[in-house]
UniProtKB/TrEMBL annotation:
It comes from Dysgonomonas alginatilytica. One of its GO terms (molecular function) is zinc ion binding. The active site is at 208. InterPro entries: Carb_Metab_Reg_Kinase/Isom, Man6P_isomerase_Firm_short, MPI_cupin_dom, PMI_typeI_cat, RmlC-like_jellyroll, RmlC_Cupin_sf. Binds 1 zinc ion per subunit. This is Phosphohexomutase. Residues 256-322 form the Mannose-6-phosphate isomerase cupin domain.
Amino acid sequence: MLINQIYITIMNLYPLKFSPILKPIIWGGSDICKFKGISPQQDGIGESWEISGVENNISVVDNGDLRGLNLQNLIAQYKESLVGKHVFEKFGATFPLLIKFIDARDNLSIQVHPDDELGMKRHNSFGKTEMWYVINAAPGAFLYSGFAKPLSPDEYVKSIEDNTFVDYLAKHDVKKGDSFFLPAGRVHAIGAGTFIAEIQQTSNITYRIYDYNRKDANGNGRELHTELAKDAIDFKLYDNYQIDYSHKPNDTVQLESCQYFTTNLLELDKPCKQNHIDKDSFVIYICMDGSCEIKDSNNNAIELKQGETLLVPAANTKSITITPDSYVQLLETYV
């Protein structure tokens, strides 16, 4: 009986969609609802948390028999069948990735995230390594990532005080399809007019370094974490901060692979079969453009369209068939 129950539990898993967690933020724009096809459209939505295991922001299933259960419920019930054995052993009930869309109508504050060691020491939390994929960018849109010229920790403190910190940063003009890897410790900020997909470790720890001396309605500036950030910042200069890749239709293009996630770009106009039997991980698909059918190794089929995100459970990833309606662009992510 126990064997049958386990078998039924595993077989009941299928590709999962989740209700987006929309975040009204003062700097939010109007692209997220349009991109996701949400009606009525809402302005001022800065972020859509597509898959989240962050406390008080746990994603809820929006399709099939498991509708209404949240991600924490699912991990508790299905364990390694949902996330993979090595993922469950390391992270337990915490889902390891946070998937977001971010729409910046204004320049976001300049910030940095601690690594795992510092995050655990200070906050009993994992750190935050992340990556960005630019979905769209207005003319003149930019972002900051890394340093353009040398800066010592002591000079860093002085540059905040005299408002010259931005002068040290590497500024990148961006366009649709640009991608950036942001390991913990890398100073960064999203500029106005930039609409991105973000894949990150599950962590909500951010040290705000600089906010352009902006004031709120009461004349107060936002809290800065100058000293906390000082120990977290990677002050090294690097030759390149952007992910270099070539478009290869109907092929798997790896954008980034690190200890926390691997992310590939798929641009398809014909059916494609992805074999993930060796990954021991869930697989996430984020639809950037077009639409397709995704069928898992248990023959569960589901439609995925622009702006939607899908989680294929680890037990169902032996073979995944993607059939575009005519064309589809996907980000594929796993641990």
